[in-house]
Write a structure and sequence with these properties.
single chain, 344 residues, mainly alpha, globular
């Protein structure tokens, strides 16, 4: 299955790409496609005569690294900073630092597991740029803080236990999560302001990673919900990387079943997609017959709450979404899913 940019439209309609069910091989294909696009961009930048010869050589080497295999999510994050600086006519010193930062990130392991937000082994400028990528609402600044050592340790153990539950009960979905979120950044709300209270956060520009709230303890089923939820955001970013989901303007705002504030229609699309997949994940856990009594009860509760959110967000999309070809195909899968559920 080829997912290069110019052939992406030809894949629309193929169930292997658009199915809601987990597919680790699909994640590998999406990762390959996104790395290929990034490699081509580095090759283009490496040909700019305005850059020093040494920097051009670094960019060409980065392209080769991207073609060779998966890279740390920091490569995607820091690439976006480099492009922003080039487009704004940044000074050579800043551009050189950004090129060096991407090269440093490319030498990191592709999968770094769980790290603490503001971890000192990662440069402050990297964290500052990630903050800018996640802080997208001008009227509601998002300023997550670093978790305490106790919070980080507890969260790390809980996530490991929830992944072990997935590995035993649904190994395919477990493998997909591990591929989609190779890096989990653990943070904590800075204060109790609504804009700063979060469960998780993702961005297309940090492909392969997610920010998770380590500020409070969760039961294993709640962690499964959150991990499927956030990894599904990452998946949808990859699936829609070449075509977008809707033609709606960014100024439109609609009620969201998973947020207190009104959201753009793409946000509603993401809400529908991720809550539908969490519903499916809970069904698969329940059908596995491997859950204990308490976990079974919790899984039913999460199944029901995600069904309500999935159906409500689907109704908003049906009324207001102006769909791209990609969005129409994915929405069709969501419609089919809810039509086929008991009680539809």
């Amino acid at each position: 299955m080829s997912l290069a940019g110019e052939t992406h439209d030809a894949e629309i309609g193929k169930s292997s790409l658009w199915d809601l069910a987990p597919s680790p091989s699909r994640v590998d294909e999406l990762d390959s496609m996104l790395r290929l696009r990034l490699a081509e961009s580095f090759e283009y930048l490496g040909g700019l005569p305005s850059l020093e010869a040494g920097h051009r050589a670094v960019l060409v080497n980065l392209a080769e690294r991207l073609r060779a295999g998966s890279v740390s999510p920091w490569v995607f994050c820091l690439y976006s900073r480099l492009v922003a600086e080039l487009s704004q006519g940044a000074q050579d010193r800043d551009i050189a630092e950004s090129i060096d930062a991407v090269a440093t990130a490319a030498a990191l392991p592709a999968g770094q597991g769980m790290v603490r937000l503001q971890e000192s082994t990662i440069p402050d400028r990297w964290w500052d740029h990630l903050q800018r990528l996640l802080d997208t609402e001008q009227l509601a600044p998002f300023r997550p803080a670093a978790p305490t050592a106790e919070q980080f340790s507890r969260c790390e153990q809980e996530i490991a236990a929830s992944l072990d539950l997935m590995r035993q009960s649904d190994p395919v979905w477990h493998d997909e999560i591990k591929r989609l979120v190779r890096l989990m950044v653990l943070g904590s709300p800075r204060d109790s302001e609504p804009a700063n209270v979060f469960d998780g956060a993702t961005t297309f520009f940090f492909w392969g990673a997610t920010l998770l709230n380590a500020g409070h303890s969760r039961d294993l089923i709640s962690w499964v919900d959150l991990l499927v939820h956030e990894s599904s955001h990452v998946l949808l970013f990859g699936m829609s990387a070449n075509g977008g989901l809707t033609h709606n303007t960014g100024e439109e705002r609609y009620d969201s079943p998973v947020r207190a504030d009104k959201r753009p229609i793409d946000g509603i699309f993401h809400a529908c997609f991720v809550t539908t997949r969490v519903h499916l994940a809970m069904k698969r856990l329940l059908d596995s017959g491997s859950l204990g009594k308490d976990d079974n009860t919790l899984a039913i509760q999460h199944l029901q709450s995600n069904e309500e959110a999935g159906r409500d967000s689907l109704a908003v999309l049906m009324r207001h979404a102006e769909l791209t070809r990609c969005g129409k195909t994915i929405l069709g899968k969501l419609q089919d899913y809810w039509t086929n559920q008991h009680g539809a």
